[in-house]
Amino acid sequence: MTIDEATKFFGTKTKIASLLDMTKASISMWNREGSIPLPRQAQLQILSRGRLRAEMPTPREFGK
Fold first, then answer.
1. What is the homologous superfamily of the domain 3-62 according to CATH?
2. pTM for this prediction
């Protein structure tokens, strides 16, 4: 899932931060890194009851 998809679904980055028990600054780092870390994507998938989907890593990404 993209940052924009998650923000659109949950409403705000502040709401996402609250749901994940994180700071808004931590969420803002996702913008700088360009993606949501896979473990957080998995949490958001659960919180959205599957309406958002975590991206499966490619074999190359999985080894990192």
1. lambda repressor-like DNA-binding domains (1.10.260.40)
2. 0.85
